Amino acid sequence: MAEFTGVTISKAANILFDGNITSRSIKLEDGSSKTLGIMLPGEYQLNTVHKEVMDIQRGELEYKLQAQEWVRIQGPASFEVPANSKFKLRVHSLVDYCCSFIKNN
Fold this sequence. Notes:
Order of helices and strands: EEEEEEEEEEE
Distance between the termini: 24 Å
Shape: globular
Number of domains: 1
CATH topology: Jelly Rolls
Structural class: mainly beta
Low-confidence stretches: none
Largest sheet: 7 strands, antiparallel
Radius of gyration: 13 Å
């Protein structure tokens, strides 16, 4: 999906790692949530509450899920992160991403 319609956008940015990762939260008409953001080069560890689908629009990074090897991808590409877990990122170039949060009913 190249664009979203009928969304509510959070005015305040989510700012992590001294501004190296920033995003805006959006809520779709169906109640689902996403963030749209940018990651600058660096190494990061993030935590999840819900399952996440990371859609990399452009840029290059490596990700490491718990107990797995590093995987290198270049956008456009995507990967899934399990709920209630940690994952690591090595961002090699500016990354434009969309993160979808998959909530269990």
